[in-house]
Fold these 2 entries.
Entry 1:
Amino acid sequence: MKARVEKLFRLADPKPDAIVLANAVDPHLDGAFFWLFDVPSGLFEGSFAVAHSDGELDVWSSVLEADTARAAAKRDPHVRIHEFRAPSDLDEELRKQLTGTTTIGLHYAEITHATFERITKALPGASWTDVSAPVRKARVTKDAIEIERLEKAAEIGSKVAKEIPGMLENGMVELSLATEMNYRMMHHGASGPSFSTIVGFGPNSAEPHYFAGDRKLRSGDSIVCDFGAYYERYASDITRSFHFGKRDEELKAVHDKVEEAQHAALALIRPGVAAKELHLAAQRVIDASPWKGRFTHGLGHSIGLRVHDGWGMNDRSEDLLEEGMVITVEPGIYLPGHGGVRIEDDVLVTKTGYRFLTTAPRGYREVAA
Ligand code: GLY
Ligand code: MN
């Protein structure tokens, strides 16, 4: 997309003459390739692109997704599609395209070491510059198309979050709930989950990055469901916590405290505010409670083509919020061996504050066993 290619070149310092983005094999696909070449589906393993400072983009696609690539290029007059037959074509194609080009940008953050070595060997006369910092900066503020897709991905997550209470059954295992959630996301229009769906019952809900397993749901359990949808390559990330059956007064109080911490952070959101101030605001609320020290991770992260896309928000974050950023705000309290609560929303930073992209209810919810 011309505007995105130009944005990247504007931010690059030093300015390369061209930028090469090269995919290896899934999951080693470069997010910047899909940011510059706006193509809604297709794997594009082994594909590569050359971005030019005038906004034009040359893309090499394999036959496996050539029709999709050509359809995308029809919508974008600044993209030229070429077909490659085998991954070994990359060296020759780049030599044809770039011999004589002095300075070439590469996305060190996402290119594999093997591809880096091949490309630099194929063009021995060039000098190389890392464009990771400008790519990150360019991608963290979203344009209107990106916001629309992120909103749609978030809407799918919210729909499923609202349906979770109706899916809970005494004795079901975490994997059954995760399977049903993944099914519902696709049923509501997702191309798939944006990461491995986290469902933790009881003590498992106290581990933030637990994967769903075979723990059975029992009365008295807290439940953490952290999941997200991909919609036209853009991700959502939402966490809702529930309580099943017999009331646990401590877990109820924990839920209220996590909500309060989330409010404290959200209240600060506007352009120019340091991301770490949001984290510290949530941490202060939790550390002033009986659960001091039980908020054990960063408050959130920027989200886009990947669920963790750009930067993370913690007490050391250097980033300032800007209009057009989309971030998660996800405080949690974890009581090992007992249970946990996390509440996570995706929000768009606006000119004067923020707008929720995820909208499912956040309050304490007890589901009868
Ligand atoms: N949704 C998982 C995480 O943000 O770490
Ligand atoms: Mn998250």
Entry 2:
Amino acid sequence: MKKVITYGSFDLFHEGHYRLLKRAKELGDYLMVGVTTEQYDRLRGKLNVEEPLLTRVENIKKTGLADEIIIEDHPGQKEEDIVKYGIDIFTVGSDWTGAFDYLKGKCEVVYLERTKDISSTILREKLHPIIRLGVVGTGRIANRFVAETKFVSGIESKSVYNPHKENAIKFSLKFGLRAHYEEYEKFLDEIDAVYVASPHEFHYEYTKTALLQGKHVLCEKPLVFSGAQAEELYGLAKQKGLVLMEALKTAFCPGFERLCQIVDSGVIGTVCDVEACFTRLASEQSRERTDVEYGGGFTEFGSHTMLPILRFMGTDYKDVQFHSILDGQGLDLYTKANFVYERGMATSKSGVGVKSEGQLVIAGTKGYVLAPSPWWLTKYFEVRYENPGKIDRYEVPFYGDGLRYEVKDFAVQINSGEPDNRKFGAKESIALAGVMERFMRLRNVS
Ligand code: CTP
């Protein structure tokens, strides 16, 4: 019996998939189809698969062409399967020509002509028209952002706004975007959604104007420095049926999502304490060290450290106290924020002029999670217990700058028409703004 195997996501099952399976089946007597999991698709950079795994498997079953369906969930599995199932022929569409020649030592490799003018990507684009995105600001993060959006289909950076004409033009030429530097409203007219990466103090105005003009907003952290302003913006987004998301990239990356699942599963018991630290020594001439109002350790990195605190301890803290080391102008080089909860506590350490170990520790009644630096990119973490010999280790891939994950979530929320508060929603974002406000107020007092 000649055994044939093929693999794919088979999202939004279409004619091209059917024809591929039919010809694959004709190559032998027994057809096995490997369907990728969501996690594996994400890992290989496919961030836009619409249908859940079971739907995709069901659709293949319905064709009656597959004798067996298996799940593909890790790199290197193809070689394993070929040996394990005694495969004679490996086949995929011609869009992959050459990519699987390395399997030739193990079985025959056949590339079947791809069906023209149909693909899951085309169907997804028909389902949801491409989201036209405008970028406000041309700084470091905006540069990284535009490069990262290229990895997410369904959303495209189209234009850039910066009131400084030269910066807008330079940025637009670099990325092939349309430059706007005069009227912000005009810039908004031509797009569906906006990414705000302006200096912090302008977030509120840019976000509010965009929402009032009916545009979805992804705004860099910290969204604003006032709980009331944050509440107003989220209220406005809700009223207008728009997505407003704070671009806290850690919240959306697969590793942090995994870490949340592990903690939520209860393996470490009840969470009682969270300690999160993020420091980066900034040059004395940098904005972080010279902008006395909006620079400094806490406004720079406090959003990162507060993410696990608000996520695992909640937004209802009883008290928060700040202790800072200030420079001569009153800018905080290092800040420790101590949160007190009804049943627990948390500490955030952030700095631009003091260096410390950038780790995250989530302590529970049965064990703790230790995520070493750079935990904010969440590539690796451990679950540890009383017994020092028992350590569960988790490694989750993280690609590029990681901004692609928040962009993908932003696009998914726009397309679904519903806010998704599971990762980092309005409640946490409003609480974060409230803590920032308190920090700014107390800092000015002292
Ligand atoms: N395929 C094909 N003809 C098409 C589309 C896909 O023969 N028009 C084949 C692919 O070459 C692959 C299999 O179907 O062997 C599963 O492909 P998959 O990547 O799931 O489908 P695509 O439509 O290519 O998906 P996407 O647009 O997301 O890349």
